[in-house]
């Protein structure tokens, strides 16, 4: 996806996340880009005092075009209170560049180009031509949109994202250590919310906007971010709070996440739907 996606894992503990990152971090021969090397194993950041950090709090989605659900705001605000109790300084602040209205259209140029490429990739892998009837209507519609962009459109989007990344990175250089936001602008959606509609094939990606509003920007900047399940809805659904560190500061992110995990443990907090099954195991 032209560098927009970072692959990691979903874990029940910060320890496990750090352990996996230890196993997969580092450059491979021939990598065109490489993240800064770690100073020590990430597992050694668990329990390390990160010092007193300056943290910006943002609860309105970038651009202010959608509203944040109260439960998602509560998740970030509760995390802010815990961070202050841990000795950190939290204030309402965020990078100005994150509100740029041109970001989403340019993101979609790169994203849809990636979908078109993915179909080409699987054609080469399988030796079979992929047509509209072989994938979901939304996938085909996005691939068609990707094919409609020129090479110049794609390179312009890449260049624009490099400029946005620089503007956002300046905020961290001005003295902030972390950005705290809700992970999503609404709680978890019911199954079937992203079902493809042949009459409106782009509906699923538009439906996903509230769920990606706070996270998509950091697919572009390459900064490490972590989502911690620090809040619950009245129905018991977990709601995440996101912390974003400066480029290459996974160490700082893991140290602070471990602090929050110790203050508000979640590993044994199972949803009632599966509690009986887990208990029986």
How is this structure best described in words?
The protein is of the alpha/beta class. It has a single domain (54-265), classed as Amidase signature (AS) enzymes, CATH 3.90.1300. The chain is built from 10 helices and 5 strands. It has helices spanning 14-24, 70-85, 103-126, 137-148, 151-173, 203-207, 209-212, 216-221, 250-263, 272-280; strands at residues 54-57, 89-92, 178-182, 225-232, 238-245. It has a 5-stranded mixed beta sheet, with helices on one face. Helix 2 (70-85) links the parallel strand 1 (54-57) and strand 2. The longest helix has 24 residues, at 103-126. Mean pLDDT is 91; it is low at 277-281.
User: How far apart are the termini?
Assistant: 40 Å
Task: Describe the largest sheet.
Answer: 5 strands, mixed
Report strand %: 5-15%
The CATH architecture name reads Alpha-Beta Complex
| Overall geometric form | globular
Query: What is the number of E strands?
Result: 5
Trace the largest sheet across and list its strands: 2-1-3-5-4
Fraction of residues in H or I helices = 40-55%
Main CATH class: Alpha Beta
Work out the count of structural domains.
1
**Count of individual helical segments:** 10
CATH level 3 topology: Amidase signature (AS) enzymes
CATH-defined superfamily: Amidase signature (AS) domain
Average pLDDT:
91
Radius of gyration of CA atoms, rounded to a whole number: 20 Å
Order of helices and strands: HEHEHHHEHHHEEHH
Unreliable segments of 5+ consecutive residues = 277-281
Output the structural class.
alpha/beta
